[in-house]
Each structure stands twice: as structure tokens, then as C-alpha cells.
Task: structure prediction
Amino acid sequence: MPDFKLMVPGATAAGTVEVTSPYDGSVVGSVETVDERGAEQALANAAALFADRSAWLPAHERIAILERTAALMQEHFDELVQIALSEGGKPYNDSVVEVARAIDGVKNCVECVRAERGSEIPMRLNPASAHRLAMTHREPIGPVMAVSAFNHPLNLIVHQVGPAVASGCPVIVKPATDTALSCFRFVQLLREAGLPEGWAQAVAVTNNDIATDLVTDARVAFFSFIGSARVGWMLKSKLAPGTRCALEHGGAAPAIVTARADLDAMLPLLAKGGFYHAGQVCVSVQRVFAHDSIAAAVAEGLAAQAGKLVVGDPADPATEVGPLIRHRETDRVAQWVEEAVAAGAKLVCGGEKISPALYQPTVLLNPPRDSTISRNEVFGPVVCVYSYDALEAAIAEANAVPYSFQAAVMTQDIDEAMQAYNGLNASAVMVNDHTAFRVDWMPFAGLKESGYGIGGIPYTYHDMQIEKMLVLKSSQL
Result:
């Protein structure tokens, strides 16, 4: 059982927090916490490192550290899988995929450093710019404060900490307390790979006020947040002047299925996108808009897919749907489903708690458009199917929520696909794929209440740097 010591040089532990399995409540590890003094020490460490430009890590050292980190992660692959699934509840096979993605993400960070470049700014175009040559190069923006979510306990940390290390920024990272172990182990591996301790500090805090103080301190140059919209927008409103940020929240992802869709091919994709990690994904398939002529068939087909899924212990390789992160989330999902059914939704399958931690994969047909489950992110294993008569109406309904992230359209008609692409309010539209498709080098951006800025490793790397210009004046130019 991993028990991690404090990762803030010069600080004293304020206590210890135990991390438990969301499946059975057993203790799976612990991390030491910081109080106000420890948080101040972490900020002081990061600020001092950045202030001493002579001590900045050169690119070749950052590359070597990240390459060694990827190799160490591969060496400890099985351990990382066990840590992630024990604390996060993601089934074994999906946790294997997450660790593999995380290793590839570290390699992506190396590629970012290797591809780093500035640009030439045109001069000598008019008398005012005569005799000048201008160019840019990239420098780290400053200390980074990262706050992360529980649902991808290793890969999300890589997306936040990896680019900070690659860009040359000292980083403080506060993982979700429920899933702190993967974060602490990743930072430990970075240090084993040669990263000096102060350049990456993992912190668990004794209360949320300390986390707020860390985020809003004037020494923080960039704030990276993955989590709920309520917390993200609140923290953004309190940032110190000059602090840049990127926020990744959730959504209520829409998928439009037209009468010309290949249902045999599409239904497994919709089920995977809706029930993967028990629906605890920010772009999980939640709202499926199906043409009147096929809506019932889509709902029944999804129910058939759901009925085949193995729900249970995430450590069992046969399990396909594991627990929700907390028992109160299972209760909340059950309440939302019960409300929708009482208001007229047809319960096609599921709708019951299996245990305090497990909820049946559930399909609802035509829940009221104003119901809680239709208007908010469910973050649970529930897919809602709505019938529509015209594509324009489906697009309008898909857009009629305060969230905008990734969306999908399923059709064999190119004109329908392009009509949906043009009409959907989304940062990405998948054609004949589910809404949760992602590779880690592509842009990943929430719009409206779903976020601020652009995620994805190269984009985060770019955000954590400034482009600094040099202008040379010479009579020989």
C-alpha cells in the first residue's frame, strides 16, 4: 500500500489523509498534507526557483528527465495501473489504457520541447522599421499551480505537470484528494528521473481555503484547473492580476443520430462513450437525439448494449463498468433518474443501484427537456435518448444547455454531417464516432460554462510559455 511523504522541500507535514477504494471503501494508501505554512513554503520554493534564471533547467536536461520518466513509468507499468484503479475505480482494462496514454503523454511533452521555436517578425517594411531585425523565442511563464480531478488520476496529472516540466516552469499540483496517490507517484518518478525536488511539488491540503490561497497567490503565473464548473469559475474570479489560466469543466455531450445512420456500427460506439468509466468523463455521451423513425430502436439498441456490460469490481479484468467515485454520487444519479421517470421518461433499462458504489447502466427515452438530467451533466452511467422530427430541431436542442464541449453526429449522408457540424455549438464535432473520442495532442476545449482556454498537451505547453521578442538595430540592416 503506497504511503507518500510530504513533497514540499523545507515544509513539515500537517497530517495524513487516507485514500480509499470507491468500490469497497478499503484504505489503499495515504499522503501527507500541508497546512498554511506548508502551502507558503511550496509557493516560496517555486518562486525562488523561477527568480534565479541561472538555475533554469536547459532544454536538453528537461528532455532527458522526461525521457527517463517515461522509461520509469513503463518499468512500473503494473504498479501504476493498480494504484489508479484502486483509488479511482476505473476498470482494470481501461486503467491499462490510461497508463499507456500517460506514458505517451510524457513522450508528447518531449516532442513539444524538440519542436520549440520562435518566429521572425517582419521589419524594414517602412521607414519606422528600417535597420532592424526582430525575432522571438519562448521562455517559461513562471510558477504553475495545477488543480486536478479524480476521473483520470494519472493521465490528467500528466496533462498538467508534464507540460510545466517541459516548458521549464516550477509546478505545484493539488490532485483530487480521492485520487492523490497517482499524482504523488508521478511526481516521485519525475524526481527519480532527475528533476530537482522544488520543480514539481505535489500537495494535499488540510482544507479548501488553503487550496484557494495557493491558487490565488500573486506568485502564481499560470493556473491549470480540471474539475467542476462551480469551483473553476469561482477560483478564476479570485486570481491575482496577471495570472493566466485554463479551465476544463464538464458538459452534457450531445450525439445526433439521423435516420441515415448505420445503427449496427453506431450503437456500440454510443454505448462505449456513455458507459465508459461509469459515465464519469467530461465529454461522455449523455444526450442522444435520434430521428422519430429510429428513436425507439436506438433506445432499445443501447439498452441491449448496456445489458451485456459487466458491472463490478474494477480489479477484475472482466469488469467493464466500475463504481462511482463516492456513494453520494450514486445516490444523486439515482435521484435524477427517479425524478425523470416520475416526470414521464420511459425507463428502457437500468435505473437501480446495485450497491452503494455501483449503479446499473441506464437508458432513458424522452425524459422531459426541463428535467434535471436533461439540463445538467449527469457524470454517471446514464444515457438519455430524445426523439426529433427535423435535424434543425435536434441541433437547436443540443445547443440549448449552458455547456459546450465535444459533440457528435452519426449519419451516412455527408450533407447532414456538415449541417450538424456547422450548426452545433461545440469545440469539436465527431462524425460517426462518440463524443468522448480524444487523443492527447489534439485541442480539447470547453466553451460557455464548460471551460476556458484550450487543453491538450501541446496547447498547455504553449500556454505555460511566453513568446519574448528581440529587436536588433544596425546600420548594416
About this structure: Residues 92-114 form the longest helix (23 residues). Residues 57 and 223 are 21 Å apart (CA to CA). The chain has a mean pLDDT of 96.
